[in-house]
Amino acid sequence: MDTIDALKKHFALDPQHSKILVVGLGITGVSVARFLHKLGLIFAIIDSRDNPSMDEFFQQTPDIPVFTGGFDEAAFKVATHLIVSPGVSLHEKSIVKALANGATIISDIDLFACSVTAPIIAITGSNGKSTVTTMLGDMAAGAGKRVAIGGNLGKPALDLLADDAELYVLELSSFQLERTSVLNAAAATVLNVSADHLDRHADLADYAKEKQSVYHGDGVIVINADDALVKAMQEAGRQIVSFSIKDKADFYLAYQGEAEYLMYQQTPLMSLAELPLEGRHNAANALAALALGVAVGLNIPAMCSALKTFKGLNHRMQKVAQLHGVTWVNDSKATNIGACVAALEGYDRKVILIAGGDAKGADMAELTPAIKEKTKSVVLMGKDANLIEQAIAGCVPVHRAENMVQAVQIAASLASEGDSVLLSPACASLDQYKNYQDRGNQFALAVLALN
pTM here? Predict the structure, then answer.
């Protein structure tokens, strides 16, 4: 079945009569526009911003109607199909009204799923998904596969179609999944679920439900047996593969003599010491990647070889410097509570934590146990610093900073030889920075300026 036939079957999309409106001109919206134009479909684009950056594609295709400066009701009123970018909430009045009037919603991931024949591995979760996606991409390449990775990470999914891949590895966010209905991954996982994006989802149960939709279809379900919310997502009649860093599972940790090993059933695969990433949460990430790889038939020795050389991602537990005996670690990608807790739990001794930003509606009290157990003091900055300080309620000393330079200087004054200073904000960055990368870069610059 070709792409147009699949779109007709699943979404009643008629190339002659359907009126498609692409909502949002970010990188996903632009990838959708290129894709629809290549298929010869008629569409318009709308963006709420007055002057969104326009890709050169639009200079070459001046016939495509582009509306900016707000969501014009008239454009939504005539639309039969909406393709809404992940950055745009489905609770926007114009979108709600259009859907109530019978418009059909399609995601870029739906378009992708209607276009590929090679197997897809789909990865979601509150934390670790970028690491597992990148890790698995390296493992698949090491196993000799032509692999393309993207989605919520790196290239938009539709831009991967030109790569002639034998395997696709997609990182998917809850915003992508909530508007996707036809994805049928060969193997999929929800790595974990913790409070995140509660400014866009009704509550934790609603957020978990959107994550669970990654398992729709008939592929292998990879389950984190250590996460109660994920464990409850198992579906009867499906092939289930589990991983755990706490108990025995299909993929787990166990001692073989003096050394701890990553295990598959009864077989030791590699020692934990050979994994070049810090923290036990990264052992869980490695086990998840192995489980997904085995589910699609990747060669296990080749996957283990790739794991032994995996360097991790920028802004994710990245060692910035060691100055005067103090280790400085950039975990700016920890944009929610669960990521910060996972980072703290990876330490054997107490650290100085720099945190704060936009809490996105999360209950910051959930940070308190990990902060009490794993930090000697906390430096807070950003929009919701007050919320975190109130949640901590004096369990460790708290210091306040106006900006990153000040936060780093305060942390330096508190640190002794042998200490680690961890930037793991537990919050989004957009209150003070362009994105988490900008925040991490500002941290690194401030640390290097100490020298």
Answer: 0.81
